[in-house]
Amino acid sequence: MRYVEISESDEQDRLQKEMNDAQAAMYAAKAAGDPEGWRVNLDRWNRAYGASRHLYQSAAEPESERTNAYAGEHEAPDHDNGQPLYDLSGIYPADFYAGRASDYGDNPRCIGIMLNMHNRPNAPIRVYRAVPRDVARKLNPGDWVTIDRNYAVEHGRDNLRNDYHIVSKTVFARDLFTDGNSVEEWGYDPQPRANRRKRTSDQGDQLGETPG
Cα(first)–Cα(last) distance of the chain, in Å? Predict the structure, then answer.
């Protein structure tokens, strides 16, 4: 038997492909009205993502591990490629709002917030982000944030070698977007205040604006 050495780069590419395939399968399952298929492929995505993060952090030099863990994140979802916190029907199967939300995540606090924000684009919500101590205490559009402070603390302990602080800010449900892979992690993309909303299959969200 011949053994083929697999480089870390090859393994990262394989895991990224696995994540892409799993996400495509999630969307296909949703389109087919198959909630169980969606959940199975969500678990598949999370396993690949966890393995990818572990591989990335294991390869980092000790002195740069904290910086790499902070900077080496995949791109956060936004208005163009995610679904807003106040209307998750475009990303989760129909049963999410029909009593099965807990099937899509194991964080009751986050699930409760997601349900409470339904159809409330202008509702305020506190978000959190763990950042290295030498990074400015501010949130920027495009940042990953969480709606659970405890999750941010765990991220700082585990991924920033416990050398971190927590940045927090009150934003609005219309500013947070998900790709459906985590109930804890959201992309921050500030949006104009909505005074009405309509949806078409080919145009997505149509948000009205009010001054100020």
Answer: 69
Q: Supply the DSSP string of 7-55, one letter for each residue.
A: -HHHHHHHHHHHHHHHHHHHHHHHHTT-HHHHHHHHHHHHHHHHHHHHH
Question: For 186, what's the count of Cα atoms within 13 Å in the CB-facing half-sphere?
Answer: 34
Q: Which domain holds residue 157?
A: 60-193
Beta bridge mates, 69: none
In-domain check, residue 152: yes
Query: Based on the structure, what is the number of domains in the chain?
Result: 1
Neighbouring-strand partners of residue 199: 205
Helices vs. strands in the chain: H and E counts, helices first: 5, 8
Strand extents, DSSP E, the chain = 83-84, 124-132, 144-146, 164-172, 176-178, 185-188, 197-200, 204-207
Q: Which pTM was predicted?
A: 0.70
Write down the residue that tokens 């009405």 correspond to. 196
> SS3 sequence, 94-107?
HHHHCCCHHHHCCC
Are the C-beta atoms of residues 150 and 119 closer than 8 Å to each other?
no
CA distance 146 to 130: 9
pLDDT tens digit sequence for 98-121: 999 998 888 999 999 999 999 999
| Residue 80 forms part of a structural domain | yes
